[in-house]
What does this fold into?
Amino acid sequence: MFNKENKKTMAVDNSAAGSNRIVAGTKIKGEVNSGSDFRIDGEIEGTIQTSGRLVVGKTGLIKGNIICTNADIEGTVHGTLVVKSTLSLKATAVIEGDVQTDKLAIEPGAVFNVTCKMGVKSAPVGNEPAKK
It folds into this structure.
């Protein structure tokens, strides 16, 4: 868009809550921090931290640590998941590692090879990892 003086202006997102997406074919190594929802259909190796909902699509692959409020997993996760509220695993999900969550929902067919600690309402969703 251009204003009256023909200068370029940046697009402004006026939505109440934004969301982020890593599409299939994208690979990221490192740390991802977000204050809003996140969908991953690509690959991430490292740490993902969000105060929103994390969705890992069927083609999504995460190798590392996840810290979030809610998570819906359809893809593959190898690592540690700290979910403050509800972790939902779809039939195509493959999870291996450690899980700490308040509530857990697993569809038939999901692979759930983890050490799991449930009922943890005070799981941190900040910069510090969960205390054991």
Observations:
- DSSP finds no helices and ten strands in the chain.
- Residues 17 and 36 are 7 Å apart (CA to CA).
- The chain has a mean pLDDT of 83.
